[in-house]
Amino acid sequence: MKTIVVFNKDQLGHGDRELGQKVLGTFLKKSIALQGLETIVFFNSGVKLVAPDSPVLGELQSLEERGVEIVPCGTCLGHYGITPAVGKVSDMDTIIAEMSKAEKVITP
Description:
Blueprint: E1 3-7, H1 17-30, E2 37-42, H2 57-65, E3 69-72, H3 74-80, H4 92-101, E4 104-106
Parallel strand pairs: 1-2, 1-4, 2-3
């Protein structure tokens, strides 16, 4: 089952930012166990997670090394002035195409 995870913000949940980023790191470490995880998509402030100073850069690099595609939105990267340290810059057409091919889309 092709699974995609979508991050539209740079933390997990709402509330305390430090806690949200901490649990996000744990989520990413454990997400390799998700059945059929092929792609992780980032847009809006979620693209901050692929930045060189990202608190979860190591986890994303590890997932990418295991074959998970890391797909940040190019327009969003430009808006925040981010040059990604991981992943392949994409556009919304590609992101929508990836999501439409998925059997399951998870937005934590």
